[in-house]
Fold this protein.
Amino acid sequence: MRNSIKRAVVLLSGGLDSATVLAMAKADGYECYALSFDYGQRHRSELQASNRVADALGAKEHRLFDLNLRQFGGSALTDDGIDVPDAVTDGSGEDIPVTYVPARNTVFLSLALAWAEVLGARDIFIGVNAVDYSGYPDCRPEFIESYQAMANLATKEGVEGDGFKINTPLISLTKAEIIRKGSELGVDYGLTVSCYNPDDDGRACGQCDSCSLRREGFKAADVIDPTRYS
Ligand code: ZN
């Protein structure tokens, strides 16, 4: 019954990392089903970015799933009462920052898993990174390993079929390595939006943690930064 085409569900935010992951999955021969979430994020311009990226990188299908996490809030990205902080530059950022969205990757992966099971896709790709990242617990390798084990206990495919693999091709790369990899694969980073707090035209603030990691990454990769700053 199984389709001989390799299918993958790729979580696509519209940012730099997930665009690179989509390009990598495509280059590995997967037919890619991109999944984005309108979760009430402050940085809504990333949703337009996800459309541009899915088109440019030839996703077979792109779904925008409506899932308003503002109903809970609790994050600077989903709660107007919490401001997006400037990047921590003094090395003291051991605490989990307020831009953490409660259980976001657990929720997103669960929906990716559901779609994968329907599609007959065994592979799910997510652009988590444990090197140049903001310290979110749901970006760590031990989270991904546990999630995969859970996914294979929780699903029909896991019990009766070959099971699922959660692919994290960026997990041990620096931001500069990610940018170099994507550039080799022809990713146009000018299409992507990483900023947590862009203006209405999608121009980046240049101040937040995500802007800071991205800007330093382009510098270290020696690649021209196409980001539009406000
Ligand atoms: Zn920013």
Residues 176 and 221 are 4 Å apart (CA to CA). The domain at 7-221 is CATH 3.40.50.620 (Rossmann fold). Residues 195-197, 204-205, 207-208, 210-211 surround zinc ion (CB under 6 Å). The mean pLDDT is 93.
